[in-house]
Amino acid sequence: MKNIVVLGTGLVGQAIVIDLAKKYKVLAVDINQENLTALIGIKNVSVLKKDISVSRNLKEVVSIADLVIGAVPGFMGYQMLEDVIKSGKDIVDISFSPEDPLKLDKLAKQQGVTALVDCGVSPGMGNIILGNYLNKIDVQSYKCLVGGLPIKPEKPWGYKAVFSPIDVIEEYTRPVRIKKNGKQLIEEPLSKKEMVEFKGVGEFEAWNTDGLRTLLKTTDIPNMIELTIRHTGTIAPIIALRDSGYFSYDEIDVNGKKIKPIDLTTKLMFSQWKLQLGEEDMTLMRIIIEGENEKYIYDLIDYYDKATDATSMARTTGYTCTAAADLILEGKYAKKGIIPPEILGQDETAFNYILNYLADRNVIYKRRHTDDE
């Protein structure tokens, strides 16, 4: 039985561990004992409390691995990925660091490592779906709308963090890169709003976020944008906080003490954003791919799974990751270097394998084509 080391066991990391343990031996590693405690007693799972931000610790931990899963917060992601590659271990990563993972491509090839990066729901599955069309049609436009949100929104935020809360705030502050008429543009996050409807679910608001990532370098599609979906009314209070400085990392003086506004904000908000016992979430996603004379639309509507007590975001993100992991471990994908999901999706076998793997777990992407309408 092959050994997998999962670095990071938050909501998504836990779902990854549980899914992979059905078939492999899994070592779950985290600095947070509470996260690890939730995994104790699961068959084929062992846990280890360790600070993997220390490179020496990480390299020691992954030494036993046939494959590594990276599920750490974004600010740790790039260094973690580099350390794993230097250890000569294949990895599937969903850490979504702000740095460009393609900078590690040469190192990964030198080490003979397969590193599937950004392999979640978005970035991730949207890229994989797009990749499947890159060699089939002349893609002129790619649009991704995606959001993980509570089924029942509560005031004042109308939101609960279904992945790392610090990464949520990054969405609100990180400059947004888009492509328009062949030119890359930089926009302010939350500056473009539109409404989107999912049949049988409702109408939601969506706004621009910086989720294109590697697509800006690996494709020459002239028009691309990503938008994050939230319940209607969510944007205004977030913009007010951001523009008032509550997300700033610059220290201010408060009664003689230096504090970062972001530290205060996260301390106050994270408890309010935490999904409580029994609260259910959903994931909404729409991928729109347009060529010269045709359009393909993929919709995902996914809900919290009561049977496994897994959040929808953990399922949709985590199971894309575990599908890719299984693909490597079964010897069905072995390309070396940094492999963004849009490159993975160009492999027809890999594309169908991942779709079927997800469907087996009731994560289903429904496709529409202009000819079908």
What this model shows, in words?
By secondary structure, the chain is α/β, with parallel strands linked by helices. The chain folds into two domains: 3-121 and 312-364, Rossmann fold (3-Layer(aba) Sandwich); 125-303, Dihydrodipicolinate Reductase, domain 2. The protein has helices at residues 11-20, 33-37, 55-61, 74-86, 105-111, 125-134, 165-173, 215-218, 235-243, 261-273, 312-329, 341-344, 348-360, and strands at residues 3-7, 25-30, 45-49, 67-70, 91-93, 114-116, 141-150, 176-180, 183-187, 193-198, 202-208, 223-230, 252-254, 257-259, 281-290, 295-303, 337-339, 365-369. A hairpin with a 2-residue loop joins β13 and β14 (257-259).
Strand content: 25-35%
When the domains are counted, the total is 2
Structural class: alpha/beta
Which CATH architecture of the largest domain would you pick? 2-Layer Sandwich
Q: What profile does the largest beta sheet have?
A: 7 strands, parallel
**What is the radius of gyration?**
20 Å
Overall mean pLDDT stands at 92
Count the strands?
A: 18
Apparent shape = globular
Quick recap of the structure?
The protein is built from 13 helices and 18 strands. It is α/β, with parallel strands linked by helices and 373 residues long.
Question: What are the defining features of this structure?
Answer:
2 domains, globular, 7-stranded parallel sheet, 373 residues, Rossmann fold, alpha/beta, 13 helices
